[in-house]
Amino acid sequence: MTKPEEFIGSIEFDHRLAPFDLRASIVHARMLVRQGIIAPSAGRKIVAGLTGLLKDVEKGKRIPPAEDIHFAIEKALFRRIGPVAGWLHTARSRNDQVVTAFRMYVRDRIDHIDGLLCRLERVFLVSAEKQMGVVMPGHTHLQPAQPILLSHLLMAYAWMFQRDRERLVDVRKRVNVLPLGAAALAGTSFPIDPAWVARQLGFGRILDNSLDAVSDRDFTVEFLSALSLIMMHVSRWAEELVIGSNPNLDFVWIADPFVSGSSIMPQKRNPDVAELMRGKTGRVYGDLMAMLTLLKAQPLAYNRDMQEDKPPVFDAVDLVESVLDVCIPMVETLRWNAEKLADACRHGFLSATDVADELVRRGLPFRQSHGLVAGVVAYARERGLSLEDVPLPVWKKQSPRFDRWIYDVLSVSKAASHRTSPGGTSPVRVKEQIRRLKRMI
């Protein structure tokens, strides 16, 4: 049977907050001395004891367990320096102490995840440069649409990850606000200096309202939302690989470490890593929903429900970091099949729009041009032909405006290079994108 003290405990998951709690406590103790709230001799002993504990934690040692990591640290400090440790909790509560360490943790993981995303962006940039000139079918509704450069597709994902980084930077501003000094809910009567504490701990500012400081976790919702979007983008990329690596397409070869065999079929190369990247996305979404649900009906100020704010964040962080860690080398080792990609462009009438556009340049309204080309496409589809195989008399029967120029326009490589509008798939524009993103990262 679960005992009540076990039920309310959180040490099994919040131990990862130890280094952040210790750093915040060191600065808090120094502030108490600066403000004349505790004696310098007590402050020195407290700081020395906390510094020793921090060194132990950084070496991988675990604080002996207690109800939660914060109480465990306090008990460890008492064992190390004796009753003088009792001065540390002056002018603070576990309410503001916990959320301070939590914000420091989230800030730290934002910086780490941003670094992983930056590495992933660079891998996509290198691949986009390497694959420049490789043409592939672009799709809408998962149906062949128009020829594009493979580099254009790779850059689309690079830009998604850049926006993910920008979101993290924006979230960080609201994470990086100091709640320490709010105490339990109403502030404290001691002459504290939270602005000094904020500067020492790297916080941008202090929170404006003590009730708000201890009772809201909207910064975790924003953080989990940003992580969910990262996972959504990774999941879409994973889907590209799952589809493209199918032998019936053979667009891309996923390296052996990132695929698995079958327990019964010896020929199988299952894209298990990519599939798990898709699957883990749902867990991160669940973490976001768990946090929203946790917060939705809590009255002010602090409630013990808040103890459950950490598992969803810890889970999502672990998932996102592991996914990005494996995604980077997977993208680095992909082998793209330029021949198969080009061959796929010969199916699905990908250059039809280019013929319609050329009619517009020759003086015909687009809607009319669209109809004329659609008629030829219908003819070709019924007979199993490509547009290049349709005889010129058939084109001319559709409209006398058609002539031999259509066969030049139907070239898929030329069709891609003609898309020179800003952000388009032409080599000139894709190279511009690469240069611009390189400057940004």
Brief synopsis:
The protein has helices spanning 4-7, 11-14, 18-34, 40-58, 69-81, 94-130, 150-175, 194-201, 210-215, 218-244, 272-295, 310-332, 338-344, 352-361, 366-383, 392-398, 405-409, 412-417, 427-440, and strands spanning 135-140, 143-149, 177-178, 205-206, 252-253, 335-336. By secondary structure, the chain is mainly α.
Structural notes for this entry:
62% of the residues lie in helices and 5% in strands. The protein folds into 3 domains: 4-90, Fumarase C, Chain B, domain 1 (Orthogonal Bundle); 95-189 and 207-337, Fumarase C, Chain A, domain 2; 344-428, Orthogonal Bundle (Ribonucleotide Reductase Protein R1, domain 1), CATH 1.10.40.30. A two-stranded antiparallel ribbon has the order 1-2. The longest helix has 37 residues, at 94-130. β3 (177-178), α8 and β4 (205-206) form a beta-alpha-beta unit. With 441 residues, the chain is mostly helical. The protein has 19 helices and 6 strands.
